[in-house]
Amino acid sequence: NKSLVWFRRDLRAFDQAALHHALISSNAVHCCFIFDRDILDGLPAADRRVAFIHACLQELDAELRALGGQLIVRHARAADAVPQLAAELGVDAVFVNGDYEPQAIARDAAVAAALAQAGIAFESHKDQVIFEKHEVLTLAGQTFSVFTPYKNAWLKRMAAEPMCVAPWPVEPHARRLAPPMPGSALPSLKQIGFGPSAGVLPGIPAGMSGAATLFEDFLGRMPDYRHARDYPAVKGPSYLSLHLRFGTVSVRHLVRTVNELAARGAGGEGAPVWLSELIWREFYAMILFHHPRVVDHAFKPAYDAIRWEAGPKAEADFAAWCEGRTGYPLVDAAMAQLNQSGYMHNRLRMVTACFLVKDLGIDWRWGERYFALHLNDYDLASNNGGWQWAASTGCDAQPYFRIFNPVTQSEKFDAAGRFIRRYLPRLDALAEREIHAPWTVPPMLLEHKKIRLGMDYPEPIVAHDEARKRTLERYAVVKAAA
Ligand code: FAD
C-alpha cells in the first residue's frame, strides 16, 4: 500500500506525526507541499513569508532526499491538487497534521470528501500542539475561557502523560519513502509569482537548521527570559514564533527540553515562564477551534456594541499608525520594526495594539488585519487572541479600563531609548529623559538638536489623557457586561 503525506504547517523531516504514521503503515510514502493559490493569490509579490516557506522547502526536500525520498511541490488550489496528486500516484491514504483554523478545517473537509469519492482515506494527526481541541477541559467537561486554570489543567495533564511530548520518529522508517521521480524540481519563487525577498528576514535563519540554531542560542538565555523578555532593545525572547508557525521546529521537542532542564534544576526562573507562553499559543488555538466566531467578532458578545471611530479622521489616524507617524516614539519605532523586518517584540505588540484601540479609538479588527499582512509569524489564533486581549474584547483580556500610557511604557521598557534610537535614528540627539515624549522638550532645545516637530518628526496625533477619557466613555456600553 502507498500513501501521500501532505505537508502544511509542519515543514520538517524529524519528529513529525503525519510522516511517522504514514511510514509505519505504508510500503511507499510520497511527500508533497502545495503552494495553495487560494492563499497565495491574495498576497503581495514581495511577501516575506512565501520566501521563508520556499527556503524551508528547499531544506526539507534536501533532507527527504538524503533519507531516500523527495518533496513533490505544486502550485495550485490545494483542494484540487491534493486529490489529483493522490489519484496520479495511486495512493491508498493521504496523511496530514491537523490544522485548527476555520478555513483550513473547511479545506480539509473538502479534500477528505473528494478523496473519499475516489476510495482514498484521509488521516489527520495531532502535531502542531501538545494538547488539542477537547484534551484540556474543566472538571465539568467544558472548555476553558480563562488562561490560568487552563494552564494548570494543561500542566497537570502533561505530568500525568509524559508520553504526550515523546517524538514521532521518522529516520528509522525512512526506507519506506518512495524514491525521487525524475524531473520534479522545486519551482522557483518567480515561477509561483513571487519576487525574491531574500535578506528581508534579518537574523532569522530558515528551515529546520535555522530553528535549531535559534533554539540553541535561546537555551543559554532561557534563565533570564522572565526579566529580559519585556525589554525590546534586549535579545530576550526566542524568536521561534515563525518556526512554530511553519513547523520547522517540533513543539514536543521544545517542551521536552524545558522539562529536562527543569528536572535538572537548570532553566532558572525563565523556563516555566517560557513554557507558559507556549501554553498561551495552545490556549488561543483551542479558543479559535471552539469559538470560530472570534475571527470577526468580540469573544464577549456585549463588546460588539462598541462604536469605533470611523470616517476620514479615523482613516488618517490609522494610516499614521501603520506608517509609524503617530508622534509617540515607542509606537512609531515598533511599527518601523514591523514594517522593516516583519517581526515585532511582544511588549510592543501590546503597546501598539492598545494605542490603536484605546488612544485612537479604532476597531481592533483594522489592526489585526494589518498585523496579519505584515507579521512573518502571523497566526490567526494568536493574532486574534492578542488583539482581543489588547482591545479587552477577548476571553481572558485585560480589563477595558486598563489603558497603557505609551509614554510611561516607553520610560519603563526602553528607558534609555535604545530601541527607539535603533528604529528612529532622527531622534538620536534627544536625551534619555526627552526621547519618550519629544513634544515636551522646549522648542529652543529641540531646535538646537536640529529636530523640528511636525517636520523631522510628527507632533503627537492624539493627546493621551483626552483619548483615555473618550475610551472610558466608549467602553461604557459594556460596563454592565464587564
Ligand atoms: P517567545 O517570547 O520566545 O515565546 C515563545 C513562543 O510562545 C512564541 O514563539 C509563540 O509561539 C508563543 N507565544 C508567546 N507569547 C504568546 C502569546 N501572547 N500568545 C500566543 N502565543 C505566544 N504570536 C504569533 O505567533 N503570531 C501572531 O500573529 C501574533 N500576533 C500577536 C498580536 C498581538 C496584538 C499580540 C499582543 C501578540 C501576538 N502574538 C502573536 C504573540 C507574541 O507577541 C509572539 O508570539 C511573540 O512576540 C513571538 O516572539 P518569540 O517567538 O520571540 O516569543
Please summarize what this structure is.
The protein has 482 residues and is of the alpha/beta class. The protein contains 20 helices and five strands.
Features:
DNA binding, single chain, Rossmann fold, DNA Cyclobutane Dipyrimidine Photolyase, subunit A, domain 3, Serine Threonine Protein Phosphatase 5, Tetratricopeptide repeat, 20 helices, five-stranded parallel β-sheet, about 475 residues, alpha/beta, binds flavin-adenine dinucleotide, DNA_photolyase_N
Are there runs of 5+ residues with pLDDT below 50, and where? none
Widest β-sheet, arrangement of strands: 3-2-1-4-5
Q: If you compute it from the alpha carbons, what radius of gyration comes out, rounded to the nearest whole angstrom? A: 24 Å
Question: Could you please say which CATH topology of the largest domain applies here?
Answer: DNA Cyclobutane Dipyrimidine Photolyase, subunit A, domain 3
Work out the number of β strands.
Answer: 5
CATH class of the largest domain: Mainly Alpha
End-to-end separation: 57 Å
What overall geometry do the principal axes of the alpha carbons give? Answer: globular
Cofactor: (6R)-5,10-methylene-5,6,7,8-tetrahydrofolate; FAD
Family: Belongs to the DNA photolyase family.
GO biological process, one term: response to light stimulus
Protein name: Deoxyribodipyrimidine photo-lyase
